[in-house]
Specification:
globular; five-stranded parallel beta sheet; alpha/beta; Cathepsin B, Chain A; about 15% strand; Oxidized Rhodanese, domain 1; six-stranded antiparallel beta sheet; transmembrane helix
Length: about 350
C-alpha cells in the first residue's frame, strides 16, 4: 500500500500544473474523444510520485503513441525505461495485488462513454484508511473512488511503475475461494469412479465457489453497485423519451428543467443552450459523478448534443439515468435544431 498516498495525491496536483489539456475544440474525432495522451499523463504522474521528474513535452513522441487509441502497454513500458524507470507489465492483476503494492500502478480501464472498449489509462495511487482508492484520471482529475467502482471499469491489466526491476506482484486468490477449490479437487479425486467424473465435479465446485465469493465478499460483483449500474447502462438501459423544440423551449421558459450538453468542452464553450451545463461524453468517472451529484433531483434533466444523428446525448442520458433519481429526456434535434428554429422565428 502507498503509505504516503494522500500526500502524493495532493503534491501531484501541484506538480502537474504544466500538463497540457487535450484540445477537443480543434478536432472532435473519436481519437481526440478518447484522450489519447492519457497514458503519457499517467507515466508522467507516476514519475513525479517516485521523485523521477522529466519534461512532459519530451514524451509527446510517435514512439510512445503507436496504439489505435493512443499509447499501448508496450509504448508506456518503453517510455518509462527511457526516463530511467521500470514498467512491470501484468495482465492478471487483482485487488489483492493492488493492496500489496507500494508503487504507483497504471491501470487499463474503459471510459464510461465506451462501455465495451478498454481505451483509457488511469493511475492507481494506493488506498486511504477507509479503503477508498486514490486515483489520477488524466489529464487533471485527482480524487477517490470505491473499490467496487474501480472493479466496474478495470480489465485487470496494469503496469507497476518502479525505480528498479522487481519480480511480479503475487498474491493468493481469495482465501475462501481457494479453500473451496482445494476441497472440490480432493472430493473430485475421491469420487472419480462414480457417475460424476472428477473433472465435472471440479468445474461444479469451482463455479459454485466463485458465485459464493461474488455474493458474499465486499468486492464481489453482486456487491458492487457501480459494476451493476454500468452493466445496466450498457445492456439493459430503458428507452429514454425524446422531446421536440417546442417542448424544450417551454421548459426553458418556465425554468422547469436542467439542460445537459453532452458534447466536448470546446464545442460547449463556443455555443450551448441557455443555462446548460457540460457533461461531455468522454467525461471520466470522477467528473461524471461530481456533475450528476450537483443536479437538483426535483427537476427533470434534458440532455442534448449536436444533431439528431449524434448518439452522445443518449450515452450521457443513460449514465445519468442509472446514477441519479432524476427524470431524463433527450432533445433529439440538439444544437442544430435549436439554431434552425431560432433562425426561422426571426424571419
Amino acid at each position: 500500500m502507498f503509505i504516503q498516498s494522500l500526500f502524493i495525491l495532493s503534491s501531484l496536483s501541484l506538480a502537474t500544473n504544466d500538463l497540457p489539456q487535450d484540445d477537443f475544440s480543434v478536432r472532435e474525432t473519436p481519437r481526440e474523444a478518447s484522450s489519447h495522451y492519457c497514458g503519457l499523463h499517467c507515466a508522467y504522474a507516476a514519475a513525479q510520485a517516485l521523485n523521477t521528474p522529466y519534461q512532459f513535452k519530451d514524451s509527446i513522441d510517435n514512439r510512445f503513441l503507436t496504439g489505435k487509441y493512443g499509447s499501448s502497454v508496450r509504448d508506456l513500458k518503453n517510455l518509462l525505461e527511457t526516463v530511467g524507470l521500470v514498467g512491470n507489465i501484468n495482465g492478471f492483476l487483482t485487488t489483492d495485488h493492488l493492496k500489496l503494492s507500494d508503487s504507483p500502478v497504471i491501470l487499463h480501464v474503459r471510459p464510461l462513454s465506451q462501455q465495451s472498449k478498454y481505451t483509457h489509462w488511469i493511475l492507481f495511487l494506493g488506498f486511504d484508511d477507509q479503503g477508498m482508492v486514490n486515483i489520477y484520471d488524466p489529464p487533471r482529475e485527482y480524487g477517490q473512488i470505491t473499490l467496487a467502482e474501480l472493479l466496474s471499469i478495470w480489465d485487470g491489466l496494469g503496469i507497476v511503475v518502479t525505480k528498479e526491476k522487481r519480480s511480479q506482484l503475487t498474491a493468493l486468490p481469495t482465501s475462501f475461494f481457494f479453500i473451496l477449490l482445494i476441497a472440490g479437487i480432493a472430493a473430485a479425486i475421491w469420487t472419480g469412479a462414480h457417475w460424476l467424473s472428477g473433472w465435472k465435479l471440479i468445474f461444479i465446485v469451482a463455479s459454485g465457489a466463485s458465485l459464493i465469493v461474488h455474493f458474499a465478499t465486499p468486492t464481489g460483483f453482486f456487491n458492487a453497485p457501480a459494476a451493476l449500474k454500468n452493466v445496466q447502462a450498457a445492456y439493459f438501459a430503458e428507452e429514454i423519451p425524446e422531446l421536440e423544440y417546442a417542448d424544450v423551449k417551454d421548459l426553458l421558459k418556465s425554468n422547469e428543467c436542467q439542460m445537459i450538453d453532452a458534447r466536448m468542452s470546446g464545442a460547449y464553450q463556443r455555443f450551448h443552450l441557455p443555462g446548460a451545463q457540460n457533461i461531455p461524453v468522454n467525461a471520466g468517472y470522477l467528473k461524471l459523478m461530481r456533475e450528476i451529484n450537483s443536479l437538483n433531483t426535483d427537476r427533470p434533466v434534458v440532455v442534448y448534443c449536436q444533431s439528431d444523428q449524434c448518439q452522445w446525448a443518449k450515452k450521457v442520458a443513460q449514465q445519468i439515468a442509472v446514477h441519479s433519481k432524476n427524470d431524463i429526456v433527450i432533445y433529439r434535434g440538439g444544437v442544430n435544431d435549436w439554431k434552425s428554429n431560432k433562425k426561422d422565428e426571426k424571419k
